[in-house]
Amino acid sequence: MSTPDLLSLILTLSPLPASPGAAPRLAPQWWARSAHALLLDVVRRANDVLAGELHDNPVGPPTGLLKQSPTAFNTIRPFTVSTLVGRFAGDQPIASERYSLRLTAFHPAVAEILLAAVQSGPLSPGQTVELDYLPFMIESAPPSPWSAETTYTELSAPYLLGKTPAPRRLSLQFISPTTFKSGGMHVPVPLPGLVFGSLLERWNAFAPVSFPPEVKRYAEECLAISHYRLSSRPVPMKSGGLRMGGVGDVTYTTINYDRYWMSVLAVLAQFALFSGVGAGVASGLGQCKAEEF
What are the residue ranges of CATH 3.30.70.1900 in the chain? Predict the structure, then answer.
C-alpha cells in the first residue's frame, strides 16, 4: 500500500531507571500532554515547519496542509494521542510493567512521519523516549484492534460504492473520557448529532472528498440511542480543575433508514479510530473505535 492517509499506532513502553543523581519527580496524573509533546518532537525532527503548524499556538503562515480553510489548523489538528495505559503504583510507573501509548494521524504528511519513526526512527523498538522527563524504552508492540493504517479512499469505498451494505445500527466504543463543546458548554454525553458532527468536521477538513453538512442533520433527527453503557470519568486539567467525559459503549439505530446517509455515517464511524471524537482529542480525550456493525 502507498503511504497511508490514516494511521493508528500502538507503542509498548517499559520504564527505565532515572539518571543517577536525578531528583525524584512526580509523575503526571494525565500522561496525554506528554504524549502530545512526544508526537510534536517526532514531527519536528522530520519537518520543523509542519511541527510549528501542529503546535497548540501555530506561528507563521500555514504550508497548505488543509484543502479548505487555512485557519482550520487553529482548531483542528490531524492527530490524536492517548494517555499512558497500564498499572501504576499511585501515579508512578512500575519498573516490571509494560505500558501502551497510542498515536494517530489523519493527514498523510503526519502519518508518513509517524510511520517512518516507528519503523526505523525515534519510535522504533529499542529507542528511548521521555514522557514528562521520565525515560521509557520502546518495545515491539503486539497486534491490536486499535492499530491500523489505510487511506481515505480505501476506508470509504466499501460503503460508498455499495460493496458493503449500509448498516441500520452503528456501535462505538469510547475508551477515554469523551466530551463535546456545544452552546458554550462541555457536554459529556455522546449524542448522535454531537458524535457525527464532530467526525464530519474532521473528515471534511482533510479528506479529498467532502460529505454534505446534512450528514449531521440526519444524525440528529434520524439516529436514536438504542443501547448504552456509559460512566463519567474526570480528566485533570492544566489549570488544576477537572473535565468530565463519558466512557463506555453506545449503539445508534436509525429510525428513518436511508442507504446513502447510513453509508456515510458508517464511513465516519470507521474514521473515528483515527480522528477521535469530540473535544481535546490531541490531549487524550475522545479515543474511540467502531465495533462490528
Answer: 152-290
pTM > 0.70: yes or no: yes
Q: SS3 for 86-107, per residue? A: CCEECCEECCCCCEEEEEEECC
Which regions of the chain carry the CATH code 3.30.70.1890? Answer: 6-139
Whether 253 and 223 have beta carbons less than 8 Å apart is answered as: yes
Tens of pLDDT, residues 219-251: 999 999 999 999 999 998 877 789 999 999 999
Instruction: List, in sequence order, every residue forming a beta bridge with 242; answer none if it has no partner.
Output: 236
Block residue for cell numbers 525532527:
45
The length of the chain is 293
Beta carbons of 234 and 244 less than 8 angstroms apart: yes
pLDDT tens-digit readout, 92-146: 899 999 999 999 999 999 999 999 999 999 999 999 999 998 999 999 989 999 9
Residue with cell 448522535: 192
Could you identify the residue written with the cell 516507528?
A: 118
In this structure, what C-alpha cell is assigned to residue 252?
445508534
- The C-alpha cell of 165 is what? 451494505
The three grid cell numbers given for residue 143, joined into one nine-digit string: 497486534
What is residue 281's DSSP assignment?
A: G
**Position 25 pLDDT exceeds 90:** no
Place of cell 463519558: 246
In terms of Cβ atoms closer than 10 Å to its own Cβ (0-12, 13-18, 19+), residue 182 is middle
Non-local (6+) Cβ contacts of 26 within 8 A are 91
> Going by C-beta distance under 8 Å and a sequence separation of 6 or more, which residues neighbour residue 117?
42, 46, 123, 124
What was the pLDDT predicted at 64?
Answer: 52
Domain covering 6-139 in this structure, CATH number: 3.30.70.1890
Question: In this structure, what are the phi and psi dihedrals at residue 273, rounded to the nearest 5 degrees?
Answer: -55, -35
- CATH value of 152-290 in 3.40.50.1260, 2.130.10.10, 3.30.70.1900, 3.90.280.10: 3.30.70.1900
